[in-house]
Design goal:
Elements (H helix, E strand, L loop, with lengths): L1 H30 L4 H18 L3 E3 L14 H4 L8 E3 L6 E6 L11 H11 L3 E2 L2 E2 L1 E6 L2 H10 L6 E3 L3 H9 L4 E5 L6 E7 H11 L4 H9 L5 E4 L5 H14 L7 H11 L5 E2 L2 H9 L5 E5 H5 L2 H4 L2 E9 L4 E4 L4 H14 L2 H9 L17 H14 L6 E8 L7 H13 L8 E7 L3 E9 L2 H12 L9 H18 L4 E8 L9 H11 L3 E6 L3 H8 L6 E4 L4 H12 L1
């Protein structure tokens, strides 16, 4: 009996060993030839399917809405000018208002012009026998140009970062007179990580805008730049890059073909400099664009990065706008002369300006109509031949009732004009449960009409199951990618608060990471930190918009990303 027992145990061990060999052999064969990422993607798909089954998903009846075929009206979307702070108030009734770019009318090192303006106002300078002063409004160059060109609000004067915006304002039909071509010096450049810089120097011998665009086109440099519709450095880089492909015809076939090849290897275009710098910190980018004044004031950049200047100089020209009375024109001239004094230029140098004075632009003058055409080209070609598949996920919980939901609707109805007909769009709304208001489809006139109908039908009630809405959007995108593998997935999440029902961010974080879906978040008077944590997973932008400026901000975001 003992011998039989031992024999049975031996047979059992052998059977277990055979089973293990067969099991692991099958597993090995199943995974043979697959990367870890593919296996992870399979696991992600299983997890997504499991989460999706836990959610109550409703399918709305498609509704068509009346579409407006007129082009987007920038002026209509702009908020009241009071949204942009006055950084220096006038001290007399005899004054000029100046729109100033943010790197010189902000705070700290970015507040040089405010210091100059305050000193000017205290100096009791007389113009036609009357004390004069200036009023400075802190506003980004591109946004300021939108106000001026649309006629929404035209100040007495404008000092953008560079001359390109002055040309665009002039081309917009606004009377423009150059008072000073430089009130303080600055330069735009590409900031490259030292290790990558050394690699490029070894291959190309030197680093300049031509070798940089060549390296990007050859997929040897991962570089990001900022929105050329809003950013002075982004617009400068776009024009300069086009010039490297054909300096004699920036919009000719040779330049356009070169730009398309180059743009195909640009990881992403940032909505803001901050978003771009955050991406660089994660190691996603080898290089990015920045102004020299910001670079020298950034302790985290000076030791590990190299600055390579490009394009037109950023010397903050000063323009008079409209048919100004001679008295106001004289105030501007005296203010420009005041700022040019040695003491104030030394102060500018202390704040990081006036560096690289030896740099001379090789870019030929570019007029406003050409700049506008270049922006349109960028909009058409920035995604190359890769269409986008986007799902909008809208919070319709009870806290969105009233004005927040009304503004959400308005922002989407106006912003949808920027979506692009080659892209595919879907729409989801959520409260305690989730509704698919519009399945993903090519954004033709029919889909556009149903998108408008879906937005108009939204009503607010119930809890906030944000991540249930995200799960449904990801499931829709994965199904779309299975049918159209070449598409690039994107999610736009519009919400006013944190989740209080359904799944959590921890439940879906790994899915967002594995699928590499950028999630752009728009907060309506929201807890922006919660939304930033979602967008930060794949380096997308997070916008904190109140009811006054959400229409403009969403229009800009969609213009850049879609």
């Amino acid at each position: 009996m003992a011998r039989k027992g031992r024999t049975f145990m031996i047979l059992a061990v052998i059977a277990a060993a055979v089973f293990a060999l067969v099991y692991f052999g099958i597993t090995l064969t199943t995974n043979l030839g697959k990367s870890t990422g593919e296996i992870t993607a399979e696991d992600a798909n299983k997890k997504l399917g499991k989460l999706y089954k836990d959610i109550r998903v409703n399918q709305a009846e498609p509704l068509k809405g009346q579409i407006d075929l007129d082009p987007a009206d920038v002026g209509e979307a702009l908020p009241d000018i009071s949204k942009f702070a006055v950084s220096v108030e006038n001290t007399t009734s005899n004054y000029v208002e100046i729109f100033s770019s943010t790197e010189k009318s902000g705070t700290g090192n970015d507040g040089w012009l405010n210091e100059v303006a305050s000193a000017f106002n205290e100096a009791n300078i007389l113009v036609e026998g009357t004390p004069a002063s200036v009023k400075i409004r802190n506003i980004a160059s591109g946004t300021a140009a939108d106000y001026i060109r649309s006629g929404k609000y035209i100040p007495d004067a404008y000092t953008p970062s560079n001359e390109l915006w002055g040309e665009m304002v002039k081309a917009g039909g606004v009377q423009t007179e150059l008072i000073s071509d430089r009130i303080t010096g600055n330069v735009a450049g590409v900031v490259t990580a030292r290790k990558k810089y050394d690699e490029l120097i070894e291959k190309y011998g030197s680093l300049n805008i031509k070798t940089i665009t060549d390296a990007i086109s050859a997929n040897e440099l991962a570089m990001g730049y900022t929105d050329p519709f809003a950013s002075s450095t982004g617009l400068n880089f776009l024009i300069t890059a086009l010039g490297t492909f054909d300096s004699s015809d920036l919009l000719g076939d040779q330049a356009v073909q070169g730009f398309e090849k180059f743009q195909a290897n640009v990881p992403f275009t940032a909505s803001t400099t901050l978003q771009m710098r955050d991406a660089a910190k994660t190691g996603m980018l080898d290089a990015f664009v920045l102004e020299y004044q910001t670079f020298v004031n950034a302790a985290d950049l000076k030791s590990g990065y190299v600055f390579t200047p490009f394009g037109v100089r950023h010397d903050s020209p000063l323009y008079a706008l409209g048919d100004l009375p001679e008295q106001k024109r004289e105030i501007l001239e005296k203010f420009a002369a005041f700022a040019a004094q040695d003491s104030y230029q030394k102060l500018a140098s202390d704040r990081g300006f006036n560096g690289l004075n030896e740099y001379i632009s090789e870019l030929a003058p570019v007029d406003g109509p050409l700049l506008t055409s270049a922006q349109k080209l960028w909009k058409e070609k920035k995604n190359g031949s890769t269409p986008l598949a986007a799902v909008f996920v809208a919070d319709v919980s009870g806290s969105m009732a009233g004005e927040p939901l009304n503004r959400l609707k308005e922002s989407l109805l106006k912003g949808q004009k920027n979506l692009g007909k080659d892209n595919s769009i879907g729409f989801v709304s959520y409260s305690s449960d989730v509704t698919i208001n519009l399945p993903i489809g090519k954004y033709d006139t029919n889909q556009q009409s149903m998108f408008v109908g879906a937005v108009n039908s939204l009503q607010a009630a119930g809890g906030t199951a944000t991540f249930d809405g995200m799960v449904v959007a990801m499931k829709m995108l994965q199904d779309e990618l299975a049918a159209n593998p070449g598409a690039k997935p994107v999610i736009f999440l519009l919400s006013d608060g944190e989740t209080n029902e359904g799944h959590s961010l921890d439940d879906i974080r790994s899915l967002i990471e594995t699928y590499k879906i950028p999630v752009y978040t728009i907060g309506y008077n929201a807890n922006i930190k919660a939304l930033e944590s979602i967008s930060g997973i794949n380096e997308a932008a997070s916008i904190n918009a109140d009811t006054d400026d959400v229409v403009y901000k969403i229009s800009n975001l969609l213009n850049v990303q879609m």
